[in-house]
Design brief:
- The chain is α+β, with helices and mostly antiparallel strands and about 400 residues long.
- It folds into 2 domains: about 250 residues, L-amino peptidase D-ALA esterase/amidase (4-Layer Sandwich); about 120 residues, ArgJ beta chain, C-terminal domain (Ubiquitin-like (UB roll), Roll).
- The protein has 11 helices and 14 strands.
- Strands 3-9-8-7-6 form a 5-stranded mixed beta sheet, sandwiched between helices.
- Strand 8, helix 5 and strand 9 form a beta-alpha-beta unit.
Length: about 400
């Protein structure tokens, strides 16, 4: 098999890919059951944009992909689930490069056109014998192997996720389809665990990069499950132009909607989570202050556990705001705090107000709104409650 021939744009699930994209999933021996290798490829040349973790322990997949993405001409994305291939030395680097080379050969594209994502346990070498055998068998199957849909790919990327995460929007004659995974070790410092966006819109690499960075800043970069930044975080977007040109503003808005949808799916599926938590801080001096204060609330273990137990202990939000000791312009006399539509500060809540607050906190989605009374800037961040389930998942992760 020297290349992927043009064929149907729709895979095995109903979501379907944008025109000109095809995908494959299979089990390469990274986990005992279920698909753990995926490949998504554009049948025609494409432009791309990508962002990566800023961790000092970035894995070989990130290091290699960062170099490949620099040219803005990625054609394919391959992902290995269940093994991060991080802290594995020179052998880990060689293994990542070998996987990329083998995938590129299957697709008939240069190795530099392939991005690789690898996610899972840190410090374990890839099972290369099994991966080699699987990719050789995939090459033998030819184009018939490339019949997977977005949900199939999202499922093959999962580690401790409980469900696959996909989203799509239409813009003009084009579509934007996104897949993502990640529910723990998740406070992005650039993007999120793994998120890939594919579109048949016709754009320049610079236009796609600008749209992606703008979307990421307000979505994935506003996400936190447990305050820990992964060694493998990657977000990438590929545009192949098969549907022709689109209005750049409309495309940017559609891309941002897909990223926001995926962000909320990631937050609500946080390890052990039972509730989506949104925190909006307004009336801030600038966006950075609004986001900083919002993150201090969404990351507070005391706030997260109160939300989990529907305990109307609103004072924990005030505490979390107050932790921002360098924001000396925050005046408690000007601050307001609301849960849903219920104001709890500065008013002294009566018994009926606390009962209403508890009912609000029992919902699957809990919104906390803070007004700082300083300026006009605002930011919303996304997280989840903290449960016994999170402890169990991470206490037993490798055993």
């Amino acid at each position: 098999m020297s290349h992927i021939d043009a064929a149907t744009d729709r895979g095995t699930d109903e979501l379907g890919w944008p025109a000109g994209f095809r995908a494959y999933t299979g089990n390469g021996g990274l986990r005992a059951h279920g698909d753990d290798i995926s490949i998504v490829v554009s049948e025609r040349p494409s432009v791309s944009a990508a962002m990566f973790t800023r961790s000092r322990f970035a894995g070989p997949a990130v290091v290699l992909s960062r170099a490949h993405a620099a040219g803005g001409r990625l054609r394919a994305v391959t992902t290995l689930a269940q093994n991060a291939n991080v802290a594995t030395g020179r052998q880990g680097e060689e293994n990542a490069a070998e996987v990329v080379g083998r995938v590129a050969a299957i697709l008939g594209v240069p190795a530099e056109a392939v991005l690789i994502g690898s996610t899972g346990v840190i410090g374990r070498p890839l099972p290369m014998a099994a991966i080699r055998a699987h990719l050789e068998a995939t090459a033998e199957r030819g184009t018939a192997a490339f019949a997977a849909g977005p949900v199939d790919v999202a499922r093959a990327m999962m580690t401790t996720d409980t469900r696959p995460k996909t989203s799509a929007r239409t813009v003009g004659n084009a579509r934007v389809v996104g897949v993502a995974k990640g529910v723990g070790m998740l406070e992005p410092n650039m993007a999120t665990m793994l998120a890939y966006l594919f579109t048949d819109a016709e754009l320049s690499a610079a236009e796609l990069d600008g749209a992606l960075r703008g979307a990421v800043e307000r979505t994935f970069n506003c996400l936190s499950v447990d305050t820990d930044t992964s060694t493998s975080d990657t977000v990438a977007a590929l545009a192949n132009g098969a549907a022709g040109p689109v209005d750049l503003g409309a495309f940017s808005a559609a891309l941002a909607e897909v990223c926001l949808d995926l962000t909320e799916q990631l937050a609500s599926d946080g390890e052990g989570a039972t509730k989506l938590l949104r925190v909006t801080v307004g009336q801030a001096a600038d966006y950075a202050q609004a986001k900083r204060v919002a993150k201090s609330v969404v990351n507070s273990p005391l706030v997260k556990t109160a939300v989990h137990g529907a305990d109307p202990n609103w004072g924990r939000v005030v505490m979390a705001i107050g932790k921002n000791t360098e924001d000396t312009d925050i005046d408690p006399a000007k601050v307001t705090v609301r849960f849903g539509g219920t104001e709890v500060y500065p008013a002294e809540p009566a018994a009926e107000t606390l009962a209403k607050l508890a009912e609000t906190m029992r919902q699957d989605e809990v919104d906390i709104t803070v007004g700082l009374g300083i300026g006009d800037a605002a930011a919303t961040v996304y997280g989840c409650d903290l449960t016994e389930g999170y402890i169990r998942v991470n206490a037993d992760y490798t055993t």
